[in-house]
């Protein structure tokens, strides 16, 4: 049974994610993974595409794509249409605690390896995040009327740029929504190419606080780029309204970057976010390096995986280095012969 065959209002568990290459990777990036529950919310008036609820957020898929995803027919159940609260694995350590006030993030800026950019340098920011996380609303709050719209070079995808209010030496680019750095659509390709090739001074990564698990997948990839970054934890008003809480300081410690809780729709925490973003860009405070080889983390699971992969590719890496050395030696010989003549 495929996801295409699931009726409106019913829930099932994904068993196999089909598709090939970039399409399959796109499914996985969006959170469509084996073992996850998915509910059909509704169909478009013409019957295609279909709207799904997965990981607590809404996702739209074409029927042709949904047909590539297999579900467990025995797991099909009726759904009440309400979002399920994530109550699994709640311990005393992870229990709901009093939430910090908006803007009480970013307890950083004490690094000894700061390298300030020259005075007068225009600080360029990439505003990146998943789709439907409030990115455009935040962009409008940051820039106000100081915006201009065009196209990214070579593609018919809107390019929105603007100066941060009261900071003329800044330029923020609102990038199309992206689920990961393995893009599928032309808009996602634009975002990846901009971040990698344009090399912005800093990144403002906006994350939906009500869907942290899904959003942090992109965040972890952005951290690997080693670009100064601040995380804007958006929709905190909804989080509080649902009785939820986020341990801001612990999240900062785990990610190694400033985390600022905000509500872009209500213009809360924006000033604090701007201050932290300008600071990390001005002083080039890069993310703290994550020790993925910590044997005490997750009972050493990541440590074992890393070393298993290192063992598998070690001989290939050595051969590649040897080939590079031979090429360099051959090139030096050619240069030497040419110089003689």
Q: What's the number of helices? A: 9
Amount of helix: 25-40%
User: Based on helices, strands and strand pairing, what is the structural class?
Assistant: alpha/beta
**End-to-end gap:** 73 Å
Low-confidence stretches: 81-92, 95-106
Q: Largest beta sheet: what is the strand line-up?
A: 8-9-10-7-11-12-13
Mean pLDDT: 81
The count of DSSP E runs of length 2 or more, i.e. the number of strands, is: 13
Which geometry do the CA atoms define? globular
Strand content bin: 15-25%
Q: What series of H and E elements makes up the topology?
A: EHEEEHEEEHEEEHEHEHHEHH
In this structure, how is the largest beta sheet organized?
7 strands, mixed
Kindly provide the radius of gyration, computed on alpha-carbon positions and rounded to a whole number of angstroms: 23 Å
What can you tell me about this protein's structure?
The chain is an alpha/beta fold. 33% of the residues lie in helices and 21% in strands. The protein has nine helices and 13 strands. The chain has helices spanning 21-29, 63-66, 135-143, 186-198, 212-223, 236-241, 248-255, 270-282, 301-340, and strands spanning 10-17, 37-43, 50-54, 57-61, 69-71, 77-78, 123-129, 147-151, 158-164, 167-174, 202-208, 229-234, 259-261. The strands form two sheets. The chain has a seven-stranded mixed β-sheet, sandwiched between helices. A hairpin with a 6-residue loop joins strand 8 and strand 9. The model is unreliable at 81-92 and 95-106 (pLDDT under 50).
Task: Give the tags.
7-stranded mixed beta sheet, 6-stranded antiparallel beta sheet, 33% helix, 341 residues, 21% strand, single chain, alpha/beta
């Amino acid at each position: 049974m495929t996801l295409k065959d699931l009726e409106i209002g019913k829930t099932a568990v994904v068993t196999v994610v089909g598709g090939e290459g970039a399409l399959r990777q796109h499914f996985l990036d969006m959170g469509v993974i084996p073992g996850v529950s998915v509910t059909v919310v509704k169909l478009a008036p013409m019957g295609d595409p279909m709207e799904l609820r997965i990981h607590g957020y809404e996702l739209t898929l074409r029927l042709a794509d949904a047909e590539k995803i297999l579900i467990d027919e025995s797991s099909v159940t009726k759904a009440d249409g309400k979002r399920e609260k994530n109550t699994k694995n709640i311990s005393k350590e992870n229990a709901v605690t009093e939430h910090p006030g908006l803007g009480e993030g970013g307890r950083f800026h004490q690094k000894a390896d700061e390298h300030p950019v020259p005075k007068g340098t225009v600080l360029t920011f990439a505003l990146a995040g998943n789709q439907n996380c409030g990115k455009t609303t935040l962009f409008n709050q940051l820039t106000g009327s100081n915006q201009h719209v065009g196209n990214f070079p070579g593609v018919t995808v809107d390019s929105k740029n603007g100066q941060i209010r009261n900071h003329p030496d800044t330029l923020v680019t609102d990038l199309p929504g992206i689920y990961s750095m393995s893009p599928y659509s032309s808009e996602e390709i634009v975002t990846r190419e901009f971040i990698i090739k344009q090399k912005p001074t800093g990144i403002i990564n906006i994350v939906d606080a009500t869907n942290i698990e899904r959003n942090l997948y992109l965040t972890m990839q952005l951290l690997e780029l080693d670009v100064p970054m601040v995380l804007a934890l958006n929709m905190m008003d909804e989080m509080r309204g649902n009785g939820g809480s986020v341990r801001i300081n612990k999240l900062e410690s785990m990610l190694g970057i400033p985390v600022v809780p905000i509500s872009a729709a209500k213009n809360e925490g924006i000033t604090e976010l701007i201050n932290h973003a300008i600071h990390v860009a001005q002083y080039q405070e890069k993310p703290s390096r994550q020790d993925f080889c910590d044997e005490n983390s997750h009972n050493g699971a990541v440590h074992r995986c890393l070393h298993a992969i290192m063992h598998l590719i070690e001989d290939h890496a050595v051969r590649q280095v040897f080939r590079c050395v031979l090429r360099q030696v051959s090139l030096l010989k050619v240069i030497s012969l040419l110089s003689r003549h």
